[in-house]
Amino acid sequence: MQVAPSILSADFARLAASVARVTPGADLLHVDVMDGRFVPNLTIGPMVVEALRKVTELPLDVHMMVAEPERFLADFRRAGADLITVHWEACTHLERVVSAIRDLGALAGVALNPATPVECLIDILPEVDLVLVMSVNPGFAGQAFWPRAVEKIRRLAAMRGARERPLIAVDGGINPETAQAVRLAGADIAVAGSAVFGADDPLAAIAAIRGN
To answer: For residue 168, which of 117, 119, 109, 210 has the smallest C-alpha distance?
Structure first.
């Protein structure tokens, strides 16, 4: 299973150094963008993504927890986003947004809040590169893992069947124990914030989450 450290839990006063500490063990970096509308918190914009792009060659996974995400797709792509994930709940015309992301040359992901069933994606699943199952309510770091997310991942894996895409990612409350549960359910990527950046040895934490 791949591991995507979430910079929401990094030391923003030493962001480049924090990224350097996790880079040798990480598969990609997860960047949480919040607008204060779709979720109550307010975080970073394209300038931070641009700064990250200068200090790492890891793929940048930009998770847009924003209303009307189509307004910002081009800005984040220009800043260096490799994967742009939008929320199903925030998109009136999801297929149009997914197509716009791909037209910009990025991979397209769709995130689902805990109360949103995976079955809502059945008609668009072949067009999506990644589905992000939220195992907490989006907006804040450090929340406890929602156990029912494991069953959602199983259902999503069954919907995907033998296809290699979309990848299944899970975000929220990830630690070595919850990572094992989601991995067995079919998850391909674990997003982890405080469990990695808050660890004394981030590389050992990543290895434990990966199951090594």
So the answer is: 109
Q: Would you list the DSSP string of 25-40?
A: T-S-EEEEEEBSSSSS
pTM: 0.95
Give yes or no: 82 in active site: no
pLDDT digits (tens, 9 = 90+) for 162-201: 888 899 999 999 999 999 999 999 999 999 999 999 999 9
Measure the CA–CA gap between 46 and 79, rounded to whole angstroms: 6
Among 32, 35, 61, 129, the active-site one is 32
Q: What is the C-alpha R_g of the chain?
A: 16
**Residues 7-50 pLDDT 10s:** 999 999 999 999 999 999 999 999 999 999 999 888 889 999 99
Contact between 96 and 70 under an 8 Å Cβ cutoff? The reply is: yes
**37 dihedral zone (left: phi>0; alpha: psi -120 to 50; beta):** alpha
Residue 32: active-site member: yes
